[in-house]
Amino acid sequence: MATVDVHTHLLPPELPRWREKFGYGGFIQLEPCGAGRARMVRDDGTPFRDVQSNLWDPEARLAECDAAGVDVQVLSTVPVMFSYWAKPADAHELARFLNDHLAAVVRSRPERFLGLGTLPLQAPRLAITELERCVRQLGLAGVQIGSHVNDWNLSDPALFEVFAAAAELGAAVFVHPWDMMGATRMGKYWLPWLVGMPAEISLAICSILFGGVLERLPGLRIAFAHGGGAFPGTFGRIAHGFEVRPDLVAVDNPVHPRAYLGRFWVDSLVHDAETLRGLLRLFGPSNVMLGSDYPFPLGEAAPGSLIRSLGDLAATTRQGLLGDNAWAWLGRKPVRA
Questions:
Q1: Taking a C-beta distance cutoff of 8 angstroms, is the pair 92, 100 a contact?
Q2: Would you say residue 38 lies in a domain?
Q3: Contact of 290 with 237, CB cutoff 8 Å
Q4: Which residue pairs from 280-283 have beta carbons closer than 8 angstroms and sit at least 24 positions apart in sequence?
Q5: Residue 116 belongs to a domain with what CATH number?
Q6: Which tens digits make up the pLDDT trace of 148-157?
Q7: pTM exceeding the 0.85 threshold for the entire prediction
Q8: Domain limits at 236?
Q9: Buried-exposed string 65-88: b where 16+ CB fall within 10 A, e elsewhere
Q10: Position 49 pLDDT exceeds 90
């Protein structure tokens, strides 16, 4: 069966000058800086990240997919583009622009690409409108969302109707860290990416579980990036806290968090064989799927290489990690390579 990478990022080759259009700043621009290279910069000139053409050129990424043995990529925007801080109507326009481009790339090679849209989650009704458009008009498999929305964690009642709409539409939801907590204290050592990202994903998972989102929406197909972040390594503490202080933890949902293991998915992006084995034990072999964070440096340079390095995996488990589990999360019929 086809090998599927559920965690890859895409941008258009050019981005509008949103600051000029909307009258305020904070948005990301792409500035060319040589053949096949560009720099993502905030519109005040602050550099964000240097990128290469494989971020925007479908043929460049397909050549690298072929070299790595990846048959299908699930495309999503770069999380900094979420722009949940922007005015709702402006964020909706930005999301529509990104989603239209992403859907066009998917249509250009539907046998190689699937897509996840982005939503203006700071305005839940607009988010639902765009979610419906993504699924019903653009044919996308679901959406990618951030680990929080400004001051709302994913348990906030304001967001529940968006999750309910995703469940009703059969849309897959992929949660990615962004706008990392404690960033003002993590100016050195790349700590927002090394410490903040894993913490953000654990925050998101705990919010979904303790907030009762899966209890109320058992059909919601939701996955979390970066192997669930800090959640697997601290699950014992999380479970113990639920047991000894239910007055603080179980205030919105009386169900033990262990009951939800196997009810959501994580990707395999953990960079360590024993950590990946731990994910399989904690979440189950059907709930971990290949995700590489392509094409960024914290990703897996050769997508799927960590999974393939575990020589003692049963053939069915290996195939699940490389593809079958992704099809189940996406709600799509598996295809052959």
A1: no
A2: no
A3: no
A4: 280/317, 282/232, 282/235, 283/228, 283/232
A5: 3.20.20.140
A6: 999 999 999 9
A7: yes
A8: 4-10+71-330
A9: beebebbbbbbbbbbbbbbbebeb
A10: yes
